[in-house]
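Methods — Computational structure assignment.
A single polypeptide chain was analysed. Its primary sequence is given first, followed by the predicted tertiary structure written as structure tokens.
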Amino acid sequence: MDMNFKRAALERISGNTFTEGNGVRLLHKGRESFEAIFRAVREAESFVCLQFYIFRNDETGTDLAELLKEKARTGVMVYILYDHFGSFGTPGRFWDELRSEGINIRASRPFKWSSLFHYVRRDHRKLVIVDGVKAFTGGLNIANEYRGFHLRMKGAWRDTGVVLEGPIVFELFETFRKTWEAWEGEAIPLPFQAAWPVHSSQGGDFPVIPIFASSAKGRRQMRKLLYYSIDTAHESIHLTTAYFTPSRRMIASLEGAVKRGAEVNLLLPGESDVPAAYYTGRAFFTRLLRAGVKIYSYQGKMLHAKSYIFDARWSIVGSANLDFQSLRWNDEGNVGILDTGFGNMMVDVFEEDVRHSREINEDEWLRRPLREKIKERFFALFRRRL
């Protein structure tokens, strides 16, 4: 395999550096992400940091809240950072009960009448850090649909995450700490920093790089990294995203990849909780299909994953979708793993998802109902706000 992806180039474009000696465990089946989070929090001895776009007061949120209260009573320091817009429906009394147990809570990007436009910018990151030893990031939120809580649910929404150990955990903690203090949270004490682990206890030696964006510069670097990844891949591209509202540049990059001989695969939801984004993405299917891009419509439970694999070597997992909201407006959190073994695992997961999907055929697609075409063209007019 021609090793097109060089560490130096990825570091230069992203503005971050790789760390070595990390353990990475892929989470993608049913409730395993929640099981991993709850287990890590239950074992916490010093501190827990949680950052989520949505943190609801449903059964899932309440279960986690009760566990966090229990840990706080034993002396574990707990910090919760939630997005104001994403968690708008969570009542104040829920947060007040947590605060009464000594839990530290802040809201990121709160609503202000003096700057209404800025409310479109949201903190979409998902991050859990426990004792500086273990970190979780991915696409899920704290809510029933992501956990598949109720028996009447067919299953949890299809999501992807990773559990990380090793020096990357400190890098992610530093990202959390800076965001926490930016929203006027009190400084987080670091009595444990001198003993911060330098290698993973779960084995593995994965090079991992943080790809977190919380500024115009950071989002620009994230976009450049994504386009560089598409433009550099020569063998295969596997893209899984919950929301797909492509820019002209993205479409051109995907077309260029096919012309270079790369196999380009795009996995999208068969149904969506955001109809506007769903129809906007479909407005570009004809052009992509004619270019040779393979498009799959996931037929299982709601697809909410965000994972991108290039030449089965360079992988990105996290919260960023392939839409304008993620790439232009939101604060997003991802990690990149430069490893063929991990890349092959990611491709295996993609292929498993494809077995639960329907490939969109160009001839069949062109015969779709007129009302569908009208919806697509209408919502595509607003794609820069989706």
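Note: The chain is about 35% helix and 20% strand.
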